[in-house]
Amino acid sequence: MISKRYIFSTLIFFNIFFFISCSTRTLPEKVTFSEHIAPLIYKNCTSCHRTGEAGGFNLISYKDVSSRGKLIKYVTASRFMPPWPADAAYSHFLDEKVLSQEEIDLISRWVNQGCLAGDPGKMPSPPVFPVGSQLGKPDLVIKLRDVYKIKGDGQDRFLLMRVPYEIPRDTFISVVEVVPGNRKLVHHVNAQLLSYPFDKRKEVMKGNVVADIKDYPTTLEAYKKLDLPNDDGTFPMLTYSLTNYLPGVTPPLYPDGIGGFELVRKGAIFLKDIHYGPSRVDTTDQTTFNIFYAKEKPKRPLKEFQLGTFGVAPTVPALVIPPDTILTFHSDYMLPKDISVLTLNPHMHLLGKQFLAYAITPKGDTIHLIRINKWDFRWQYFYTFKSMVHLPKGTLVHAEGVYDNTRHNPNNPFSPPRLVAEREGSMRTSDEMFQFIVTYLPYREGDENISLERK
Ligand code: HEC
């Protein structure tokens, strides 16, 4: 029998424990760079804020950080930085870039106290980042065929590119890593794979390799410009989601037996699309792709479906957003079989304001997928779950997007606002899209227990 005394002492123990764990949570009286701020910045900011990276300026030395104290306080409190639009209070993903409230308060107190430097003896050493590859030595490197010239006109560029390659024989690969040639300007790359049957296309290296999305009213017209088809006009096999890049993102390395691709002798990496940020000086890019071989044929290659534009279920109502309106659109899809979900990618353009997706199982349970409270078209991650999420047959997948076509939306491409709509899948930023891309595998028992964390 458990005595009262035992219960009493246990209660005291837990009270003390609780007290200690709470008190460690309170902020230090005096916040210093060397002791408190530097470790936080190195862990959450420096990967993108160092020479040549997308952040545009360094966040390493005391001076780098203290000279921007107020701005850093603002961008962290508003959760603009580190960039991670998905709401961590709704669902969790791999490599989440989110500061805790305590960390945000710590930065704020440091700035309010006048950005104290602290004891130099307590300074941690700055992080060291691998050069070239985050994953090791690649087996094959494929480069953009031509160096791409970027004009210093201060414009964003969204391009389609065909990156042709020829290798001595067909092979299997596990993962593809994007290494931007110009890390400052390459803001995202979404790559697919084109596989040409050996005898159906004589020359893969020749032809056009670049199309600027803004020059083509439909995706199909842009595709035509890129010489994608076989010699007889038929279309080669296309595999989705070969790799997706955003600054600071390392591609997920799935456990053995999951994912992987077949790389045939003649093919092309198809960039749909590559986004270069604005530059004030003329410059260039020649992005490369690190290819890592696999020993065997992919056992469970990834599959993909999407809701909305070009998807398995339409956008409702049709995506037409008159000027001076804020409207919500949705798309619903009933799963015909059990699946294991790996990644999610919500996609909208400049008028996007919020995004929400969840699933309702046949038993009536709601499974949170993703919520974005403040859409940011620059940060369209492929969010990978920490372990696969099982959605049974008959589950309803629901996605909804809110669009703001008023003058209060600072990203509105038109002033005054104009009617904006989806136009045959036009990828132009001044046209709209609503897509929710889901990468999955046919479900196998136990999938939900397999960790997708990098080993
Ligand atoms: C994944 C890459 C990445 C990470 C991680 C990151 N940043 Fe940034 N940061 C950027 C980029 C890119 C920009 C330029 C603006 C943009 O494209 O959104 C930027 C802009 C900024 C700005 C300028 C904002 C302005 O309005 O001028 C500040 C300040 C900043 N970051 C601070 C931080 C801090 C502090 C952290 C860590 C808590 C951090 N960043 C983490 C990529 C990153």
What features would you describe in this structure?
The protein has helices spanning 4-23, 33-44, 62-66, 69-77, 101-112, 219-225; strands at residues 140-143, 148-150, 157-166, 171-179, 186-196, 210-212, 237-245, 261-263, 266-276, 283-285, 288-293, 303-308, 320-321, 326-334, 339-347, 352-360, 366-372, 383-391, 396-404, 420-421, 435-442. With 455 residues, the protein is α+β, with helices and mostly antiparallel strands. The protein has three domains: 26-122, no CATH class; 140-293, Jelly Rolls, CATH 2.60.120; 303-449, Jelly Rolls (Sandwich), CATH 2.60.120.230. It has a five-stranded antiparallel beta sheet with strand order 6-3-9-5-7, covered by helices on one side. A four-stranded antiparallel beta sheet has the order 1-11-4-8, with no helix packed on it. The protein has a four-stranded antiparallel beta sheet with strand order 12-21-15-18, with no helix packed on it. Residues 44-45, 47-49, 54-56, 59, 68, 71-72, 75-76, 81-83, 97, 99, 247-248, 378 line the site of heme C.
